[in-house]
Amino acid sequence: MFLLLTNLATFAIPSHFGATVETLRNSASLDNLTIQQLADIRVHAFWIIGLAVVGGIARVFSRIFIFNTGRRIEFDVRNELYERLTLLTPSWFQSMSTGDLTSRVTNDVNFVRTLFAITFLHIINTAVAYTCALRQMLNLNWSLTLWALLPYPILLLVVRQIVRSLFVHTKRVQAHLS
Predict the structure, then answer these.
(1) How far apart are alpha carbons 171 and 166 in whole angstroms?
(2) Count of CB atoms within 10 A of residue 10's CB?
(3) pTM of the prediction?
């Protein structure tokens, strides 16, 4: 909910900037602004400030909510891992290298927190932001929107290749850490 509010506020600001610029452009000069035009500019300025404040507050709360959820998950995973490790036999510990065990207990649990906090936040935020932006773009000019989206299939293929190579590299780094 906070991510949606953040994005709605963020995407509403440019329309108020645009209306202000239109008001200024329609006046003969800055010295000749009518009382109504000045009032319109003030209203848009208050909207811009208000939307920026609401968006900033919503962004802070979204991060607090998601990051705290990630920390709670990390806490639970660490506790479950500890309980499981206490049940294992000494022979199991002898079969594992100390580095591998340490890496799994520290790094892997941190990766779980990162997945549930930062990655989840970015995935959801990106989906919401793209939806809001796409809606606004389609409202402005649907044909220009289609032209803007034309390179996306190529970009998705490039990103897919990058993700694959990052996965291989990350596995190598994990093996090296252990």
Answers:
(1) 9
(2) 19
(3) 0.64
